[in-house]
Write a structure and sequence with these properties.
Elements (H helix, E strand, L loop, with lengths): L2 E8 L3 E9 L4 E10 L7 H15 L6 E6 L5 E7 L4 H15 L7 E8 L7 E9 H12 L7 E4 H13 L5 E7 L4 E7 L2 E8 L3 H12 L3 H11 L6 H7 L1 H4 L4 H33 L6 E5 L8 H9 L3 E3 L4 H6 L1
């Protein structure tokens, strides 16, 4: 008997939905849809709800079981190590550790955790996620207004890892996943097809869009359209001159150079945060040699971003198509 599943990923600029059929031994993706969120709307929450309503209206999802994720910027993530591996004991200890590691009253938080791979048999490592109960309430209210009551709510970092495991695992290897969205970048560290560490930083393509808006005196919505049409090449400034796209938008060469340089600074900031993440990780896990850096999310579509990441990190870098909604369904 098959079970129908709808995995919904509510992003900043678009909403994605994956439809799947799951049986005892089968798992089949039946559709993947994307609906843009109107960035010019005064109320972005209403715009997101309207986009989701359009998506549901276009598809027959009655009787489906819904999955969704809590955006990582709405959660506090901590990687915690215990000197024991018993899951029940760890579950009992989590609230006390969370109280020490999270700067909020524990009674106001919704907490969950999952075991992650540990290099030894004597210590347990967990990924703890916490968010304010009011945040969960508001998010559920947003969904319930469209009659969506998810059976599970996960984290984007998990979905990202599941995509890697399904699409890109090629045997024993150490991998960095970087998913660059509009408002955030998710960093995963993976070894031998096991998620070891995750972090979310508040840097994304929205900062590049703001740079364009400030330079050209445009609204965010108009700057976003310019960003998409400009097809900025971060790796090679001269390539931007040769393509002539900047002339279509009435951008002078000095303005283009300014936009290019400041946009490159944003990617440099992401690399800096990656280096901080690797240093934090290595304190507990030791240093790893990475075979690949996989870049996904909307930011991975920026021309030249993978050569820039490879130059800055020294790690072979490539674009990866890792839809978060697909990872949720998995």
């Amino acid at each position: 008997m098959f079970e129908n599943i709808a995995a919904i990923d509510i992003g900043t600029s678009s909403i994605k939905m994956v439809l799947a059929k799951k049986g005892l031994r089968d798992f089949n993706i039946t559709d993947l849809m994307v609906e843009k969120i109107d960035s010019s709307a005064d109320n972005q929450e209403d715009a997101a709800r309207e986009a989701l309503a359009r998506l549901l209206e276009k598809n027959q999802v009655k009787g489906y079981r819904y999955l969704t994720n809590l955006p990582m910027e709405k959660a506090i993530i901590r990687n915690i190590t215990f000197p024991f591996t018993d899951r029940a004991k760890i579950a009992e200890a989590i609230p006390f550790e969370a109280q020490e590691n999270i700067p909020f009253n524990i009674d106001d938080l919704d907490l969950d955790f999952q075991m992650i791979h540990s290099p030894t048999d004597t210590e347990g490592r967990v990924l703890v996620a916490a968010t304010h109960s009011d945040t969960v309430f508001e998010y559920m209210k947003f969904l319930e207004l469209l009659d969506i009551r998810p059976i599970a709510m996960g984290l984007e970092s998990n979905a990202l890892f599941e995509c890697y495991s399904y699409f890109a695992w090629s045997g024993d290897e150490n991998v960095i996943q970087i998913d660059i969205g509009q408002n955030k970048t998710i960093i995963n560290i993976v070894r031998d097809n096991k998620l070891l560490f995750t972090r979310c930083v508040s840097i994304g393509t929205g900062l590049i869009i703001k740079i364009i808006g400030d330079a050209l005196d445009l609204s965010f919505a108009d700057a976003q359209k310019t960003f998409e049409g400009l097809r900025l090449d971060l790796h090679d400034y001269d390539a931007n001159i040769k393509k002539n796209h900047f002339k279509t938008y009435g951008i002078s060469k000095p303005k283009l150079k300014q936009i290019h340089a400041k946009s490159l600074d944003i990617i440099t900031d992401i690399v800096e945060q990656l280096n901080i993440t690797l240093k934090s990780f290595s304190l507990d896990n030791g240093s790893l040699q990475f075979q690949r850096l996989l870049c996904s999310g909307g930011g991975s579509n920026i021309i030249g971003i993978c050569p820039v990441l490879q130059k800055e990190t020294g790690i072979p870098s490539s674009q990866a198509e890792f839809p978060i909604a697909f990872g949720m369904a998995l």
